[in-house]
Backbone:
């Protein structure tokens, strides 16, 4: 394994470090293996009191005694600064949230609570509160292009439909930077590796020979374990059938009826399973854009897995560059969508849509941000042409009041002006 010599920088690090110093409860959500615990252990003081609810023995103690957590916190010595309490996998013991609220309301200066979780499902179903008015909510995603740059040389200028800069504050360097500012970034990958193995930190740092097995373990052990542990579904077998079907259909329009027939479960159950994937942060929906000047727009959402490596393993495919190459176009489109989605999550503003009419005109993604629409097409080609831009041109023409420039993300070697307001860029400049 290519073990890092030191902490590998995350885009969220600096901004989160500053926010953790504020007198609120902090909740960090994200899918399993995105690096939440690693990040928090790097940012929190060395004397932090750590409650590891991922450990079954410790979790069972807290489930058996709802007052145990509060007693442990009150036993911590008072000091000039608040005692930091870090609870990992907090969603597994919902009563912890009530204890945190009571302790925080009792004395806002004695403790600094940081809660970490990989699912919001049990909290929502149990009625557990997320500490309204007391907590700041954060999310950690798989690696972005900024955190794991490409091996291609960056140009001295940047062109991107969604700039994602990194200036050391967690709000702003340029995406794809290769270690500027002394950052310790993750290994550089070309696009083939990204399509095959995704962007989970542990997978990126692993030897190539181990990546497929690690991803298969993620889907067969981690996801199933979490579902069983929290009692999230009644029939594990039917859920696993659904999971494989959903993974194979990822990136496309959701067809609830078709998956219902193939998985042998009802349409409401299919919808509930899709919601479960979102609650576990391993999937997200991209809705159709509404309000466009064009009529007869499709409104069915598209569904994406949060990581392509996990998607490939969940689909029953052995994650490999050869496997990815067989469906490179579809996976490349998903990779672009996932990257845009991660950026919007971190930037805390804007939404991702797609646009498609009933007569077949379509735009892969439309970024809605600050009152503007930015259409993005994805083409698995090294030579994008004006023909690839025809739907972008129509969209810009029909929505001139809100959409000013269109983009094509491709495998071209340098930016290309396909029209005055349409630019094709290499994927590594995204």
Residues:
């Amino acid at each position: 394994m290519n073990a890092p010599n030191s902490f590998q920088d995350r885009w969220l690090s600096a901004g989160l470090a500053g926010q953790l110093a504020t007198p609120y409860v902090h909740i960090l959500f994200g899918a399993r293996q995105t690096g939440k615990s690693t990040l928090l252990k790097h940012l929190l003081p060395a004397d932090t009191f750590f409650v590891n609810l991922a450990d079954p023995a410790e979790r069972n103690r807290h489930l058996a005694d709802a007052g145990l957590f509060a007693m442990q916190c009150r036993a911590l010595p008072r000091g000039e600064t608040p005692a930091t309490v870090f609870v990992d996998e907090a969603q597994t013991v919902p009563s912890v949230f009530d204890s945190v609220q009571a302790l925080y309301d009792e004395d806002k200066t004695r403790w600094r609570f940081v809660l970490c979780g990989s699912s919001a499902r049990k909290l929502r179903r149990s009625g557990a509160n997320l500490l309204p008015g007391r907590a700041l909510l954060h999310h950690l995603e798989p690696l972005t292009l900024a955190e794991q740059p490409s091996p291609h040389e960056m140009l001295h200028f940047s062109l991107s439909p969604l700039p994602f800069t990194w200036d050391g504050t967690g709000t702003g360097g340029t995406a794809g930077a290769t270690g500027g500012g002394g950052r310790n970034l993750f290994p550089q990958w070309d696009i083939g590796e990204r399509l095959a193995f995704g962007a989970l930190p542990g997978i990126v740092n692993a030897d190539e020979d181990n990546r497929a097995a690690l991803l298969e373990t993620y889907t067969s052990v981690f996801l199933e374990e979490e579902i069983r542990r929290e009692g999230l579904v009644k029939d594990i077998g039917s859920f696993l059938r659904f999971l494989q079907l959903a993974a194979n259909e990822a990136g496309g329009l959701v067809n609830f009826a078709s998956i219902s027939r193939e998985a042998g479960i009802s349409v409401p159950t299919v919808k509930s399973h899709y919601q479960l994937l979102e609650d576990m942060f391993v999937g997200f929906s991209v809705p159709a854009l509404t309000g466009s000047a064009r009529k007869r727009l499709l409104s069915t959402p598209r569904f994406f897995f949060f990581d392509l490596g996990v998607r490939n393993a969940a689909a029953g495919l052995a994650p490999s560059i050869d496997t990815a190459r067989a469906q490179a176009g579809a996976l490349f489109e998903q990779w672009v969508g996932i990257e845009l989605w991660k950026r919007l999550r971190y930037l805390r503003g804007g939404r991702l849509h797609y646009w498609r009419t009933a007569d077949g005109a379509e735009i892969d993604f439309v970024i809605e941000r600050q009152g503007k629409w930015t259409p993005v097409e994805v083409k698995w080609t090294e030579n994008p042409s004006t023909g690839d831009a025809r739907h972008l041109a129509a969209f810009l023409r029909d929505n001139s009041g809100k959409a000013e420039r269109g983009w094509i993300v491709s495998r071209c070697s340098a930016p290309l002006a396909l029209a005055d307001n349409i630019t094709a860029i290499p994927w590594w400049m995204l």
